[in-house]
Design a protein that fits this description.
The protein is built from 17 helices and nine strands. The chain is an alpha/beta fold and 367 residues long.
Length: 367
């Protein structure tokens, strides 16, 4: 998928959201486009250290660890860059020139991205990964990315547009603010989980579409893993108040251009009731609706409460879930009930309607 003109600011916002959610990103772009500077500048904006690791000049031991004899066993000592990540647990690790790394180095990098382990050192869960690569036809000694590694990344195409470049040349390269993802976004995740589940249920063939050609396998394509990650980045973008196009870029970066368009069209066509109307009158909820529509309707109401959390609105949401429970849809409502628990203020008493979900919460070890 090619980046449209004037869209570098949108890609920058998408990258910022992915970094904040811990989703590994792969920036594709030609040489000289400023990918390295973009990542370093973005990390600075977010108040995070940036650790640059150039894959093409590294050995596999720089990711798998250097074997050292320790008595009767062998330990794998991590390199210094990995140790610095434990000292600053919110570090952005920038893996530059990914596709020019040898296959053995790529395999070692895969373990770092997937398992967050460098040798015998486990990296903190708050460390974020961003990789950059030139297309194989534009990189000396470049290889296509392996399918397992590619399927861990959100793929974003980076190309500096003329307007941004001209403005930077004339006025300086001071970056504009980027969207900030709130720490609590459970309600948004519940809504997007419902949308994705509904879409994949309606189109089961799109759950996994592994491309036939090697080049496409090295980019974004649908799999159970990427659909799961897609709902998380979409929720983060919505919670951060990002542009709709930013949300689309993130979803497309996970599952590919075509499936992302279908998903967002599906979301638009769900014709969900107004969340505020549901909170004002829970009795209008259609408990006989399709599972995906009911899930998204309830999650939408919880999302509305999250945007304006008051005790009255929180209790109204519990009344809404109670209507679903009374209609025999407690299993569906339980997803939103768990999200609603997270919105409770310490001073708010437990609502009567919440008792109906106690068995579900106990089974899930939430209480």
């Amino acid at each position: 998928m090619k980046v449209q003109r004037g869209s570098s600011a949108l890609v920058r916002d998408a990258l910022a959201i992915a970094v904040q959610t811990g989703q590994p990103v792969l920036l594709w772009g030609g040489p000289g486009e400023g990918k390295s500077r973009l990542v370093e500048q973005l990390a600075e904006q977010l108040g995070r250290p940036c650790e640059v690791v150039v894959g093409s000049v590294r050995e596999a031991s720089d990711f798998a660890g250097l074997p050292i004899r320790d008595g009767s066993s062998v330990t794998f000592a991590p390199p210094r860059w990995a140790c610095r990540c434990t000292e600053a647990p919110d570090t952005v690790v920038f893996l530059d020139e990914l596709t020019t790394a040898s296959p053995s180095v790529q395999a070692a990098m895969l373990r770092v991205v997937l398992e967050r382990e460098v040798g015998d050192l486990r990296l903190p869960p708050t460390v974020s990964f961003v990789a950059a690569a030139n297309p194989p036809e534009l990189s000396a000694g470049g290889d296509d990315l392996s399918a397992p590694l590619a399927n861990r990344f959100c793929h974003l195409d980076w190309e500096t547009d003329v307007a941004s470049w001209s403005g930077g040349m004339l006025r300086g390269w001071e970056p504009r603010p980027v969207p900030i993802v709130p720490a609590t976004r459970t309600a948004f995740e519940a809504r997007w989980r419902a949308v994705v589940v509904g879409f994949v249920t309606a189109r089961p063939s799109v759950l996994r579409l592994v491309p036939d050609d090697v080049v496409s396998q090295g980019r974004a394509w649908p799999s159970p893993r990427t659909w799961d990650r897609a709902h998380l980045v979409a929720a983060a973008a919505e919670a951060a108040g990002a542009d709709r196009e930013v949300l689309r870029l993130l979803v497309a970066g996970m599952v590919g251009h075509g499936p992302s368009i279908e998903l967002l069209r599906f979301e638009d066509s769900m014709d969900l009731p107004d969340p505020e109307a549901l909170l004002a009158d829970p009795s209008i909820l259609s408990v006989t609706a399709r599972v995906d529509v009911l899930l998204a309707s309830l999650a939408g109401a919880v999302t509305a409460v999250a945007a304006e959390p008051t005790r009255d609105r929180w209790e109204a949401a519990w009344d809404l879930l109670g209507v679903a429970c009374d209609g025999g849809r407690a299993d569906v409502a339980a997803v939103s009930a768990a999200a609603l628990v997270d919105l409770r203020d310490a001073d708010w008493p437990a609502p009567r309607r919440a008792a109906a979900f106690a068995p579900v919460f106990r089974a899930a070890e939430l209480v």
